[in-house]
Design brief:
Blueprint: E1 13-14, E2 21-24, E3 29-39, E4 45-47, E5 55-62, E6 66-67, E7 74-82, E8 85-90, E9 93-98, E10 103-106, E11 111-114, E12 120-128, E13 133-141, E14 147-148, E15 153-165, E16 170-173, E17 178-180, E18 188-201
Antiparallel strand pairs: 1-17, 2-3, 3-4, 3-5, 5-12, 6-11, 7-10, 7-12, 8-9, 8-11, 13-18, 14-18, 15-16, 15-17, 15-18
């Protein structure tokens, strides 16, 4: 069993390029795990091993059609973040997923994907249904209105340029990098573009 080395402290920036890449499925693409962990009773985040995680965030390429790995007891949210269209068939029902349109489905469902317009890149959130509820929404960034990241929230920059502001610091955020939120000195995102806002809650 391995445990993620990623810090889950408030304000931590996770560079996508620093996340190891590995194949997934039947050589359908490459996946980078951004973070995984558990959600404690007080709403704080804690690291977890491969065996006992309650939530997991990753970015994966879909390079050819095929079946998805089932995750019984879990809920999945998939968001196309690059490319045009992913055709997802869940328990026999077809869904056309366009860019920046989060789609939630049961992890145990029989799921397959096809690529009518070519390869895509997807942001994936998986939560264990009896432990954590997850939500993904896409927000437009503005320099006039900072986007706060509170406890049990993550921000993933999908498009544009942005900075992470703290009480005593400011740093640039690269494309598809992730920032971890918190209640004390909550990170503020200022810039122009689009960000995926991931929120975790207790059931």
């Amino acid at each position: 069993m391995s445990q993620t080395n990623t810090s889950l402290a408030t304000g931590t920036q996770i560079r996508l390029a620093s996340c190891p890449k590995k194949p997934w499925g039947a050589a359908q693409g490459q996946i980078r795990e951004i973070a995984k962990g558990s959600l404690l009773a007080d709403g704080s985040l804690a690291p977890a091993t491969d065996a006992d995680w309650q939530w997991r965030i990753s970015v994966a390429s879909n390079e050819k059609s095929g079946e998805f790995t089932p995750y019984p007891g879990c809920e999945r949210t998939l968001t196309v973040v690059a490319g045009e269209l992913l055709e997802l068939t869940v328990d026999g029902i077809s869904h056309g997923l366009e860019i920046y349109r989060p789609f939630k489905f049961a992890g145990a469902a029989s799921t397959s994907a096809s690529l009518p317009t070519g390869e895509i890149l997807a942001l994936n959130l998986i939560t264990r249904s009896d432990k954590v509820r997850g939500n993904v929404r896409i927000v437009e960034l503005s320099k006039k209105r900072e986007q706060y990241l509170f406890g049990s929230q993550f921000g993933v920059l999908l498009q544009g340029k942005a900075s992470v502001l703290r009480e005593d610091s400011e740093s640039e955020l690269e494309l598809r990098d992730t920032v971890i939120g918190g209640e004390d000195d909550s990170p503020r995102i200022s810039g122009r573009g689009f960000m995926a806002l991931i929120s975790l809650d207790l059931p």
